[in-house]
């Protein structure tokens, strides 16, 4: 969101305002009262994402004929089995080029007795993990889906190219792995090719449950589902906008947490929302000709995607996708009717646009994985006082040797993005003098010595990213 700086309130704020250091490289789109250190590495990562590679991979995926979850698994050229073996071999090849930097594995479970998977079927995702150097148990993830479908969700034999839904998101995930695997990060990055999406979000459920069981400190899931269509059903053609869907209050909120939120706020500051704000800023700062629309909703109206199983377990997770959808190209039998071509074919994927959204993912993942862990146990006080005090737990220095300190952010309660920031050093408490708690929302980010920042953490259970 290129939200131009303020507005009606700025005059009354000035007299209290703290001196700010504006760091060189501040992008003209960034807020005037937010400091930020431009990162050359992120610009380089963005430039390396290749539309050609994405095109090649989407074509390979389409050429499996169908990738329906219930399709055949024996053939080497057609069906879901051939598709997942090809994905595994691609991740293995990427890993080979970085000296085995990816741990690549199948993650599977037998599903049966479900409306769209009645008979026992092995649902098999392909996962690649790039282990972090200092904090390997902290994860950020990019995902796309393997499977495709036509009009009847149970039709497992007809041609179902699934070029945009969702070969585009999966090809993007492979390309992000190709580029990011050339770098080393503090935290771990997961590249997930998730299975069984169209049949009931099964691959996501299986991975989210495994993450919980294995105690992953999963801080962000960037699920990419349809990132290549630029010609909307409404006639709009636009390649400069993308959507980031992020839920409000988290699914796992307890009644006590809801009661506390009623008095302190947090409805618009779930960790998923603050991941979305983070991605929005990465777009403004690093991706030429791309603006993101942060959408205050779990997903499209009544529809679903693979970020949801992660939200269901309380993990921060968002859906990244095109702004302009074409329903004639989604979940349709290949046919021409009344002069309209139906079906999810290669013609509906714009590869430079898919690359643009992939570069947004890659820069966001890299920035978070280089940054220290998001601050934990953030709390705030300041009722009936002229000032606001935040405190948080000190981050572990072994896990976060790159930590320089912490940065407080705040904004007016009706503003979509953080508007003010102050780097406060390596402390665990800070008081903002003459900033009245009632009139703003606040949060804390951690900052590395190079200036990489974690997402902003809103105080209390409503905004927590966990330990
Ligand atoms: Zn779909």
Q: Would you identify the regions where 5 or more consecutive residues have pLDDT less than 50?
A: 3-31
H and E order: HHHHEEEHEHEEHHEHEEEHEEEEEE
Structural class: alpha/beta
- Give the strand line-up of the largest sheet: 1-2-4-3-5-8-6-7
User: Helical amount among residues, as a percent range?
Assistant: 25-40%
- Sheet-strand content, in percent, reads 15-25%
Number of helices: 10
Largest sheet: 8 strands, mixed
**pLDDT averaged over residues:** 94
Gross morphology is globular
Radius of gyration: 22 Å
Record field, number of beta strands: 16
Bound molecules: zinc ion
Short description:
27% of the residues lie in helices and 23% in strands.
Structure description:
With 467 residues, this protein is of the alpha/beta class. It is built from 10 helices and 16 strands. The chain has helices at 10-13, 40-48, 51-62, 80-97, 163-180, 202-213, 255-264, 271-286, 308-312, 351-370, and strands spanning 102-111, 121-130, 135-145, 187-194, 217-224, 241-246, 291-296, 317-322, 335-337, 340-342, 379-381, 388-391, 403-412, 420-425, 429-432, 440-448. The strands form 4 sheets. Strands 1-2-4-3-5-8-6-7 form an 8-stranded mixed sheet, sandwiched between helices. β3 (135-145), α5 (163-180) and β4 (187-194) form a beta-alpha-beta unit. The longest helix is centred in the last third of the chain and has 20 residues, at 351-370. It is globular, with a radius of gyration of 22 Å. The two termini are 29 Å apart. The protein binds zinc ion.
């Amino acid at each position: 969101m290129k939200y131009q700086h303020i507005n009606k309130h700025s005059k009354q704020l000035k007299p209290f305002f703290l001196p700010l250091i504006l760091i060189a490289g501040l992008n003209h789109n960034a807020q005037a009262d937010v400091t930020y250190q431009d990162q050359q590495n992120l610009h380089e990562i963005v430039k390396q994402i290749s539309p050609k590679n994405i095109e090649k991979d989407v074509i390979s995926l389409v050429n499996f004929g169908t990738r329906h979850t219930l399709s055949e698994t024996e053939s080497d050229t057609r069906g879901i089995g051939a598709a997942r073996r090809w994905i595994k071999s691609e991740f293995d090849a990427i890993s080979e080029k970085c000296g085995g930097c990816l741990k690549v594995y199948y993650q599977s479970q037998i599903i049966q007795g479900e409306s769209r998977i009645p008979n026992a079927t092995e649902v098999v995702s392909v996962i690649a993990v790039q282990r972090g150097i200092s904090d390997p148990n902290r994860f950020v993830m990019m995902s796309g889906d393997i499977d495709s479908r036509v009009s009847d969700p149970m039709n497992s034999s007809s041609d179902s190219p699934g070029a945009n839904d969702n070969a585009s998101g999966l090809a993007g995930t492979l390309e992000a792995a190709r580029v990011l695997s050339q770098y080393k990060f503090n935290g771990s990055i997961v590249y997930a090719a998730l299975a069984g999406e169209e049949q009931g979000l099964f691959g996501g459920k299986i991975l989210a449950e495994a993450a919980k069981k294995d105690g992953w400190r999963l801080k962000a899931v960037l699920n990419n589902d349809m990132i290549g269509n630029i010609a909307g059903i409404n006639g709009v053609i636009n390649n400069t906008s993308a959507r980031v869907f992020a839920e409000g209050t988290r699914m796992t909120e307890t009644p006590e947490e809801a009661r506390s939120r009623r008095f302190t706020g947090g409805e618009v500051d779930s960790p998923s929302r603050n991941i979305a704000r983070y991605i929005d800023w990465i777009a403004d700062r690093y991706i030429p000709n791309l603006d993101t629309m942060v959408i205050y909703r779990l997903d499209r109206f009544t529809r679903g995607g693979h970020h949801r199983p992660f939200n269901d377990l309380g993990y921060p997770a968002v859906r990244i996708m095109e702004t302009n959808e074409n329903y004639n190209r989604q979940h349709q039998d290949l046919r021409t009717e009344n002069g309209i071509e139906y079906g999810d074919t290669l013609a509906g994927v714009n590869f430079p646009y898919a690359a643009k959204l992939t570069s947004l993912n890659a820069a966001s993942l890299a920035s978070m994985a280089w940054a220290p862990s998001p601050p934990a146990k953030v709390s705030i006080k300041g009722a009936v006082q002229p000032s606001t005090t935040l405190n948080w737990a000190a981050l572990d220095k072994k896990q976060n040797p790159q930590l320089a300190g912490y940065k407080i952010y705040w904004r007016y309660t009706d503003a979509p993005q953080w508007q003010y920031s102050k780097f406060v050093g390596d402390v665990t408490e800070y008081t903002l003098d003459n900033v009245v708690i009632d009139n703003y929302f606040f949060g804390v980010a951690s900052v590395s010595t190079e200036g990489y920042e974690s997402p902003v953490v809103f105080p209390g259970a409503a905004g927590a990213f966990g330990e």
